[in-house]
C-alpha cells in the first residue's frame, strides 16, 4: 500500500509541478539497524533525521568489522554525522565500534534494550524497507530502482528525501521536465519537520499519561529475562528517559 500511494504522488509531482529543492546541514543524526529477511539475507540501513534519506546495503555477515566498513563507506559519501543511534546489539556495543566512534569524531548512542520504540526512526525505516523488499520480490523487480523512486517521493513534509539532501530530485524512469531536476534550495525545511513532529506527537500523546520521574534508590520491577519480572532499585537516571536498574549484582538499562 505504501509503494502504490507513494508512486502515484511522485507521478503527479513529476509531470505537473515545478519541484522545490533543498539543501542544508544533512545527517544531523543517523539511524542504523539491520533488516532480516525470510531468505536469510541481511540488510543494514542508515537514515538521516534531517532529510529522511536512507541508505540500504546488503551484508555478507553481521560482524562489527562489516558494519563499521559499511558505515565508513557511507560516511565518506555523505559526511560524518554528529550522532549515530543504533540498536543495542553486541555488534554495536563493543570496543571496536567504540574506537570507531572516537577516531571518526561522532557520538554513539543506543536504543534501550527490549524497547524498539525508543529508536522510532529506525523502526519506521525498517517497515518501509521490509515492505519495499517484499513488493520487489513479489513482482520480480529491482530493489535499487525501487529505492531510487522511494528516495524521490515527497513525504508528509511535502518534499522528497532527495530534495532535502541534494537540493534537487534525481532522474528516475518516470519522465519529467528538466526544470524539475535543477537545484533549488527549499526554505524553512526545519520548520516543516518540527511541525510534522509536533503533529505526530499530538496524535501519539492523546491516549497516554505522564508518569512521575523515578528517584535514585526507588524499588521497581523490571523484566530481566523474557517475561520474568524481578525487583531492583534505581541506580542512575539517563538523559533519554531511561534508567539504570540494579537487580542483585547486575545492572540493566530500561525505559520508564
Verbal overview:
The protein is α+β, with helices and mostly antiparallel strands and 256 residues long. It is globular, with a radius of gyration of 21 Å. It has helices spanning 2-16, 64-78, 95-103, 120-138, 143-151, 161-166, 189-205, and strands at residues 29-36, 42-48, 54-59, 83-86, 107-110, 219-225, 228-237, 242-247, 250-255. The protein folds into two domains: 2-203, Ribonuclease H-like superfamily/Ribonuclease H (Nucleotidyltransferase, domain 5), CATH 3.30.420.10; 219-255. Residues 63-191 form the Integrase catalytic domain. This is Integrase catalytic domain-containing protein. GO terms for molecular function: nucleic acid binding.
Quick description:
The protein has 256 residues and is an alpha+beta fold.
Which helices and strands appear, and what pairs or packs with what?
Elements: H1 2-16, E1 29-36, E2 42-48, E3 54-59, H2 64-78, E4 83-86, H3 95-103, E5 107-110, H4 120-138, H5 143-151, H6 161-166, H7 189-205, E6 219-225, E7 228-237, E8 242-247, E9 250-255
Domain Integrase catalytic: 63-191
Protein name: Integrase catalytic domain-containing protein
GO molecular function, one term: nucleic acid binding
Amino acid at each position: 500500500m505504501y509503494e502504490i500511494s507513494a508512486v502515484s504522488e511522485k507521478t503527479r509531482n513529476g509531470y505537473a509541478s515545478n519541484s522545490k529543492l533543498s539543501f542544508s546541514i544533512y545527517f544531523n543524526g543517523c539511524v542504523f539497524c539491520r533488516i532480516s529477511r525470510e531468505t536469510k539475507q541481511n540488510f543494514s540501513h542508515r537514515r538521516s533525521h534531517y532529510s529522511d534519506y536512507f541508505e540500504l546495503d546488503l551484508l555478507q555477515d553481521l560482524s562489527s568489522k562489516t558494519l563499521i566498513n559499511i558505515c565508513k563507506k557511507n560516511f565518506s559519501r555523505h559526511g560524518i554525522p554528529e550522532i549515530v543511534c543504533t540498536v543495542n546489539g553486541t555488534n554495536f556495543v563493543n570496543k571496536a565500534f567504540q574506537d570507531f566512534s572516537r577516531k571518526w569524531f561522532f557520538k554513539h548512542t543506543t536504543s534501550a534494550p527490549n524497547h524498539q520504540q525508543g529508536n522510532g526512526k529506525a523502526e519506521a525505516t525498517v517497515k518501509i524497507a521490509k515492505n519495499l523488499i517484499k513488493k520487489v520480490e513479489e513482482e520480480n523487480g529491482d530493489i535499487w530502482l525501487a529505492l531510487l523512486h522511494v528516495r524521490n517521493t515527497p513525504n508528509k513534509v511535502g518534499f522528497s528525501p532527495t530534495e532535502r539532501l541534494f537540493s534537487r530530485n534525481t532522474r528516475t524512469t518516470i519522465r519529467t521536465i528538466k526544470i524539475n531536476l535543477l537545484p533549488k534550495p527549499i526554505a524553512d525545511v526545519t520548520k516543516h519537520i518540527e511541525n510534522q513532529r509536533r503533529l505526530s506527537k499530538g496524535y501519539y500523546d492523546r491516549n497516554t499519561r505522564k508518569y512521575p520521574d523515578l528517584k535514585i534508590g526507588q524499588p521497581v520491577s523490571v523484566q530481566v529475562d523474557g517475561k520474568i519480572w524481578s525487583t531492583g532499585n534505581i541506580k542512575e537516571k539517563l538523559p533519554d528517559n531511561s534508567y539504570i536498574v540494579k537487580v542483585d549484582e547486575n545492572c540493566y538499562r530500561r525505559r520508564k
